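[job 0412] stage=fold_complex status=start
inputs:
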Amino acid sequence: MHWRRLDREHTQAVLDSVKSAAEPGLFSSTTSEVQSSILPFYKEYRAFKVTNYASLPSFTFTYLGDGSFFHFLDGTNEPIFAVNDKGQLNLTEGNIADYLAFYFENVGVDDGEECYFIKNPHDMPLLDSLDDDSVYAITQNHEAPIISFDAGQGIFTVTAELYVEGQVNRATIEVKKSSGRVTIKDQAMIWNELFEENQEESVL
Amino acid sequence: MSEKDNESGLQGAFGEKGTKASAMNYEHPNSDELKKKAREMMKPSLTGLSLWKVSELYNVPLKILKGKGNATYVAEENVVLVYVPTQATQVTPKLILDLCQGFRLAEQHLLGFTTPKKEDDVFTYASIMHAKTIDAITFMCKTVEELKDTDYYSILLDEVKKLGHGMVYKAYVEDASSEDMAKAYAGRQ
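[job 0412] stage=fold_complex status=done
writing structure:
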């Protein structure tokens, strides 16, 4: 995603929109920055990222918004589906991987476990926190997502890698073109960080 | 949508299809219950209990927000923020670790070990930030180690590794010097 920083006027407008009565001090225009990024799978909605640099460490909240209305991405699929149901979604074979990357980064799996759709391993947010061996294992074993579309059913099927809680799984994922509902049909582990670490420790 | 359209849209009013500012709610729906349970789980650790007590004694509010993110301390508001997936009804191992870090960051502030100033040169700024982070992670490791006799210790230890602090934890239990702790921390950066 390519983030673009908003100017002072528009930063303030977004902050006014996302302020909470219960937590009025979360964001101030003097210590917060707002960025936005176009999402290729939405017609008018884009992603907004609000970062408060006054805290240690800084914290960021992400929203979907059209400039007037904002949906806080709270880790569930509800805000994404709410926007999808407004007729904003335009899924194609060219942007389905971007949609899934965005979806899993903001929703995760099961009870909120972190999950990343690996479109390009070098874009993975967690890559910097892994050791060299793990980075090598992930990048060398990577296979690009395979995408197909069943026009009769209106369903995309994507075979791709997911990084879930320290392990890489190869998964088959179905996405409904009209609603963007995501279903993981099956997945199998192809690499496990903790297993690798334990193997190293047992050798030592 | 063009950039111009978007910018003019920012001036729009709120309506029935959007979220009013005052209606934006960030607090986790099970916040109170999670706080109680997390406190109980950290109680067997002297360090963990002490972190809770200091925050209570000095009125540092804890807010459990819904979503993803790492623990943070907002000095201006004197509040510790931690995040829990919205659908979670049970204490997650990450919440325990985040509470250790968040409370320790608040404690650092109370002790006068404050956030570096914007005017500081980049090396001074980075040194202070890393020193504060290592200190907070060390308190997290200390708490986890003191929970060794609980049945959730191994889950916490796995979470420490998932967060990329396995080497710092190892250094801590081996009673490593400050220099070696810093090396372990840097190795996972």
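[job 0412] summary: Residues 77 and 171 of chain A are 19 Å apart (CA to CA).
[job 0412] exit 0
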